[in-house]
Amino acid sequence: MILYFSLAGVFFFSIFVSGTSAQDLADQKVISPKSSPIINSGSFPIGIDINPITNKLYVANQFSNTISVIDIEKSKVETNIDVGNSPYDVDVNPFSNRIYASNRESNTISVIDGFTNRELTDIRVGESPVGIGINLATNWIYVANLDSKIITVIDAIGNRVIKSLKYASLPYDIIINPHTNKVYISDLGKDSVLVLEGSNNTLVSTIPVGSDPSVLAINTQTDTIYVSNFSNDSISVINGTSNKIESNINVGHNPVGIAVNPRTNKIYVSNLADNTISIINGTTNKVTKIISLEPAITASGVNNPFINIPSKVTFPFIASKLTVDPTTNFTYVTNTRSNGIITIDGKTDDIITKIFMDMNPPNSGNVKCNDATLSAGESITLPFNSTAKCEAIPDRGYDFGYWSVHNNTKENPVIFNVTGYGTLTAHFKNAILTETFIILTSVIIGLVSTIGGWFYRQRSRLSFKRNLTNIDYTYEMLSKNNKEECIKQLEQIQRDLNFLHRKGKINESQLEFLEKRINGYISRVNISK
């Protein structure tokens, strides 16, 4: 019985040690997985570009007059850079880490240092600058000025205008193939794409396309140019060698933004009116999938695109653009309705989000989420509106406590619906190691043995004294008056002593002593007969 109580003491001691390390659930901040699938930027984001070397996104926020710098790994804004009025488009030179933003109402180009995230200077250009293109071969910057109907050419080394070109009636977007040194300009006024020789900026070709050609994209590996035709819902595919249209592809309603992943040869088109993304196979020139952005926009909780926007503002001043990261195979889409960025995974062509992991206390375990093992600060990319299964795995010396999710659930693994970007925190508590438990148990058992031995010795001493007194009393009371009864009682006591010895109530030496006492008394009685 004493052993059972002692082991129970060990068990409750271990619970006490664990419990004293766990924090009260009521004191914890609950982080819900119900969050937005949008990476927030500024107000009315339109232009977007990526520096794959620094892993940063740059977003032109037209109504907040800022360029948002987004850390792609963390999926959040690192800083907002103040620029001119109504920044519309943005383009990145990844080699110099310079970012160029067109300020539509200021009639300037902001030059930003990507190392410091500060505006270095602004360059005055034509009226209502929109599209920007960087010629990496010549280090010239081309700017489409919509209202003044000119193309401004800037020397990126001296940050000065070196030429103004009057080829287009309503120039909108510009893209350059650095391998062929050809410059392509979409002309809304003439429904055409202009081709310039990049070395001397002469016009070499005018290619008729669809109605209201807007954004341009190029696959430099195949020398194929793509232009979105806003008013007739199509994409014109241009052969860069022959300067002729190879195909016209029907897409969604009012296509504007377009981007190419040269590694997968996929083309992504943002359809402004129906909030969809058309995905085109560049080999077959066929639409392979259409993604609706509506579920993500609705889930963001910000879904009123016309707050504080003048009613006269229409395309091209309302637009949605894209950029592709060929390294990760992710495509990023600006969305003015949700004031943020939507991410598409090129492997599955689905909208995706990220779930970040945290551990409390630090270095107490990790998490296995959908077969990916994650440490604190790491994340997993998951499809929007998918199901995630995450299991907290404690390190040695810890037990799982609870999740900061779903009202601090203690279920492990936890299963939840992925609704957006968020953080899961796995809380662990201290636990007794096996070695520690064995040591504690050994100590307790040792104490039990010591205490048990003491109790046994005390009990046997009491039994010895009691039986010794009984033997002496029997002899004194019966040896003179009733010798036969005396011998009979002493023999009965001797039998009782053997029984007590077998039960462990007296030890061997005590039994031997008492038996000698009894035999001595019996001998005396027999002699006196």
Explain this structure.
The chain has 5 helices and 36 strands. The chain has 529 residues and is an alpha+beta fold. It has 3 domains: 15-30 and 353-430, Immunoglobulin-like (Sandwich); 44-347, YVTN repeat-like/Quinoprotein amine dehydrogenase (Methylamine Dehydrogenase, Chain H), CATH 2.130.10; 434-527. Strands 1, 26, 27, 28, 29, 32, 34 and 36 form an 8-stranded mixed β-sheet that branches. The protein has a 4-stranded antiparallel β-sheet with strand order 2-3-4-5, with no helix packed on it. α3 (434-478) runs antiparallel to α4. The longest helix has 45 residues, at 434-478.
Give a short synopsis of this structure.
By secondary structure, the protein is of the alpha+beta class.
* Biggest sheet descriptor: 8 strands, mixed
Give the overall form: rod-shaped
Q: What is the name of the CATH architecture of the largest domain?
A: 7 Propeller
Distance between the termini: 51 Å
* CATH hierarchy class name of the largest domain: Mainly Beta
Count of discrete domains: 3
Overall pLDDT score: 87
Q: State the CATH topology of the largest domain.
A: Methylamine Dehydrogenase, Chain H
List keywords for this structure.
529 residues; alpha+beta; Immunoglobulin-like; Methylamine Dehydrogenase, Chain H; 3 domains; 8-stranded mixed beta sheet; 4-stranded antiparallel beta sheet; 21% helix; rod-shaped; disordered N terminus
